[in-house]
Amino acid sequence: MSTTSIRKTPLLEVRDLTVTYAGGARAVRGVNLEVEAGRKLGIAGESGCGKSTLALALLRLLPAGTKVTGEILLNGEDVLAMKWGQVRAVRWAGASIVFQGAMHSLNAVHRIGDQIAEPILLHRRTTPAAARKRAGELLEQVGLPAARVDAYPHELSGGQRQRVMIAMALACDPGLIIADEPTTALDVMIQAQILRLIEELVSEQDLGLIMISHDLAVLSDTCDRLAVMYAGRVVEQGPASEVYENAHHPYSRALSGAFPRIGDPASRFAPQGLPGDPPDPSALPAGCTFHPRCALALDSCSTLDQELRDAGPGRQAACVLVGPEGAAAPVVPGAEEARSTS
Amino acid sequence: MTADSTPALVQQADAATDGPPAGPSAARGPRARNTKAYLQYVAAKIAGAVVSLFAVLVTSFFLFRLIPSDPVKQMTGGRPVSAEQLESLRHQLGLDQPMWQQFTSYIGDALTGDFGASFAYHAPVMDKIVEKLPATLLLTGTAYVLYSLIGIWLGTRTAWRNGSAGDRFNTALALTLYSVPSFWLGLLLIIVFSVGVGPIPGMFPTGGMTSGDTSGFGYVIDVAHHMVLPVITLVAVGYAQTLLVMRSSLLDEMGSDYLTTARAKGLRDDVVRRKHAVPNAMLPTFTLMFVNLGHVVAGQILVETVFSWPGLGSLFYQGLSTPDLPLVQGLFFVFATAVILANTLADVLYPLLDPRVGR
Amino acid sequence: MTTTDSMPTPTPASAPPEPVRSARALARARKRQSAARFWREYRRHKGGMWGLAGLILIALVALAAPQLVGADSESVTEASGGALESPSGEFPLGTDQFGRSVLALLVWGARVSLTVGLLAAFLCVAIGTVVGIVAGHFRGWYSTVLMRVTDWFLVMPTLVLAVALASVMDRSLWTIIIAIGVTTWPTTARLVRAQTLAVESRPYIERARALGGGHGHVMLRHVLPNVMPLVLAQTTLAISGAILSEATLAFLGLGDPTITSWGSMLQDARAAGAVSAGDWWYLAPPGIAIALVALAFTLCGRAIESVLNPKLGVAR
Q1: Closest residue by Cα to residue B204 from B219, B222, B220, B218
Q2: How far is B144 from B184, CA to CA, in rounded Å?
Q3: Conformation bin of residue B122: beta by default, left when phi > 0, alpha when psi is -120 to 50
Q4: CA–CA distance from C304 to each of B186, C38, C39, C51, C314 (Å)?
Q5: How far off is chain B from C40, nearest CA to CA, in Å?
Q6: Which among C295, C272, C294, C293 has a CA at the least distance from the CA of C282?
Q7: CA-to-CA distance for A335 and A270, rounded, in angstroms?
Q8: How much is the average pLDDT of C245-265?
Q9: A152-180: per-residue pLDDT in tens?
Q10: Which residues contact C101 (CB under 8 A, 6 or more apart)?
């Protein structure tokens, strides 16, 4: 949390968001987040930790029958309390989403120009010709020739389709972009291009960005702040590079350790990885949900649930081992040595 | 005659194996290149249709000349016919020629539209067919339009409200009607509404197309009156299949990601359904509709027979009972041609709906 | 998709620390497990359960026909009732034009309709499966020729073709069976071919070939078991269609005139003037029976399809 005395209204403020699906699965349990204009927040976690649910919840895109409580303040207004007409107006114009898997997230029988122009025509008073022209401009912005505006999705490559998704997300000049696994299905080279593109656009237009991924390395590179989610809760958050290099929560540490440090020979030999599987959202373990897989679990961890505690300036972690003075938690012996020899 | 989901499955199966190559695009030329590819596609389909038509001719020859050991005996079976009459009949039909000569003359005649003379009617087969065609088109054409519209509309509604009481009722009703033999339904309708059962009086004619000499507007009303029961029969069985296919393909689409994208853009639910989901879901239904279009000419032997409707179906049945081989042969070819033409039309128009194919 | 993946069987270790079951026993156990899994999934489909119940009931009725209504109720000379009588205590569904009990004919007709339906469907699926697997397995011109033939059949209006075929052959049950079987196999062939292509692209097929498996081995031991679930669904749906087709062909007078089936009952009824006389009790029961049996098979087939393709959902 920022400690400066003058606080401008954050672009997005999520307070105690809880999402329970119709079958009883608790996908998100009390999440608090903040994103300011021009800042990038990364949300990391394995599949099933609730990050995609979180993204959909922000624009109320979850299926009917899903219980959502808490507050989602977009520019100060609670999305969850809005009437449907206003929700639809806010969608895309206030915040937009770049979905993963662009082949299935684009309509196969519509031209991409029409799909980009569609929200423009919906949210702005403009003519179809002007919208089409704008679509061409957006394509140029993301590095595609404007002439491709008449192409169909299946005529483009994976990287090109993802650029189209980004162009589409920018169509109504939103203040916040939510990128859900934007590079997961792409080759590494294309991945780098797309990430650079996103960074440029965000800084040029002073947008807020939430990037969701399971790839901690990518997030630490692109984002300012990082939040790690586990079983529907944020278990750690702080400045991206700090969380990546020196995580406090055992889970974050394991996640970060799973990524090899290129150029660090010792990291290849350090045993990392986590036994077991992420918990089933409809049957979560008692106490700290991570305790069955935690190497440092104490007896109290199976009964006491963990709140986020302060772990340093701008950092928080939800672990009993994180001391109130911000002292780093005891480190797993092998990894400590490995990291110190680099 | 098999499952409602079969068309969608077949399409999926085909797309999975022979699907269009989706690769990175090369330097794209102007749209003209798309059009050229499309024209080549159309030309290929038409060529295929011609081959199919020829195959149908061969088949009908095979069926009606080769399989029956003695066509003439079959046709005159049961009637006292002298040997000379049999001989002259054989000569008339060209059956005394060698087989390959029969084949070539048959093909040659067929290409000029000459299918010989009907044995029972003593008139050229083609004339008879042309005479009866309008009656069939009127009946089955009307039913086709009705059941297609009803099937698509109800299929869309029940899919969108999946799980509701209305959906379950409609689906159950459609499944039941789909399992009912059409001719039996027709017979029941005749009993209940033409002859009258219990307190229900007979309100409709039991058969035929008209009841006597009426003319002008009276004639139109008379024909319409006669059309009610057969059309109800055809619509009852036809809408069910269309509904089931439309419903299942829309249900398939409804889980798709692009609908979430559309909703995220702020579109209203009914717009999402109409502009995004239905166009994708229409694809299997589109194919089915063209298959059914072919059957407008070809398929309604049963209903026409049951209602004594004087169209091609009744003609075919009578031809079978006689048996009047030249007539049956000609009708067989006409039916198959109608289906081939309808399918070719479907193939040619499909790329306009689905840009992933044929361009 | 619930598959019965028949992976190449593992070889037992040379000095096992615990008793190792034989390869065959392992395979059997695995098959039993996947069958149990299939049944558990199937049970969730209400429509499928109703269909299955209906099928069992009808099968019992058909098998128990002699006990239920007497072995001689088809005989014209033994008929005890008057012609075309309305339902009464003695004849719950009235009599036909020969004085036979319509109810008895209905029960006996079940045997014929079911038998013809089953045999025709098996013929259809057998041809379709063989053609599909061969076309999918052997590429090159075998496949092209077979698929051209299949496509051609798909273009023909099936009813017209079946009627034409049946009309030029003798009037018998086998004619009907062959006519239906020969005209309906293409849809199955196409589906099976697509599935064969999908199965053969899996890595373990490559391994089987590298180990020396020939064409027969790959097709029989690997492709066929993986195609069976799809074939099962197709068979059930094909039976439904075949029963309707049999009724149609019999109604058109193309069946054996001496044998009673539901379709021939309808034809007899019409020929005897039951329609104009308003004898609904003669006309309605055969059609209801046909519809119920066809519906039962359709429900089962749809349930099996849903089990194989969970995306289709339970409430179809």
Answers
A1: B222
A2: 19
A3: left
A4: 32, 9, 10, 11, 11
A5: 22
A6: C272
A7: 6
A8: 85
A9: 998 898 888 989 999 999 999 899 999 99
A10: C69, C73, C81, C91, C92, C93, C94, C95
Closest chain C CA to residue B11? C191
Retrieve residue B252's tokens.
């398939």
From C250's Cα to the closest Cα of chain B, the distance in A is 12
3-state secondary structure B228-240: HHHHHHHHHHHHH
Rounded distance between C-alpha atoms, residue A187 and residue B348, angstroms: 37
Contacts of A96 in chain B (CB under 8 A): 264-265
| Residue C178 near residue C249 (C-beta atoms within 8 A) | no
- CB burial of C125-145 (b: ≥16 within 10 Å; e: otherwise) equals bebbbbbbbbbbbeeeeebee
**Burial class for A138, CB neighbours closer than 10 Å (0-12, 13-18, 19+):** buried
Find the mean pLDDT for residues B216-244: 87
Which of A61, A104, A107 is closest, CB to CB, to B264?
A61
**Total count of residues recorded for chain B:** 359
pLDDT value for B73: 66
Q: Tokens for C118?
A: 């089953």
Count the Cβ atoms, other than its own, within 10 Å of residue A85: 10
For B352, which residue in chain A has the nearest alpha carbon?
A109
Interface of B with A in 168-197 (CB under 8 A): none
Of the residues B257, B261, B359, the best mutation for testing chain A's interface (the one with the most A CB atoms within 10 Å of its CB) is: B261
Among residues B345, B8, B292, the alpha carbon closest in space to that of B146 is found at: B292
Contact B149, B165 (CB under 8 A): no
Q: How far is A87 from chain B (nearest CA, A)?
A: 8
Work out the minimum CA distance from C34 to partner chain B, whole angstroms: 24
Kindly list the partner chains of chain C, i.e. chains with 3 or more CB atom pairs below 8 Å: B
**Nearest chain A residue to B20, by CA:** A154
Q: Cβ of C184 and B2 within 8 Å?
A: yes
**ipTM for the complex?**
0.82
For residue B308, give every residue at least 6 positions away whose Cβ sits within 8 Å of its Cβ, in sequence order, or none. B206, B207, B208, B314
Q: Which chain B residue has its CA at the smallest distance from C289's CA?
A: B180
CB contact under 8 A, A156 and B20: no
Residue B11 CA to its chain's centroid (Å): 19
Interchain proximity C163–B294, CB inside 8 Å? no
Q: Which residues of C touch B188 (CB under 8 A)?
A: 280, 283-284, 287
- Which domains are present in chain A? 12-94+172-341 (3.40.50.300), 102-171 (no CATH)
List the structure tokens of B289: 């509709």
Report the pLDDT value the prediction gives residue A210, as an integer from 0 to 100. 93
Contacts of B251 in chain C (CB under 8 A): 312-313, 316
Between helix B278-298 and helix B6-18 the angle, nearest 10°, is 110
Supply B83's token pair: 């040997």
**Which residue type occupies A263?**
G
CA B54 to chain C, closest CA, distance in angstroms equals: 11
Taking CB atoms and an 8 Å limit, are B261 and A99 in contact across chains?
Answer: yes
- The span from the CA of B327 to the CA of B120, in Å, is 9
**Which of A265-279, C126-140, C153-167 is the least confident region?**
A265-279
Of the given ranges (B67-81, B121-135, C35-49), which has the lowest mean pLDDT? B67-81
Residue A180: strand pairing partners: A212
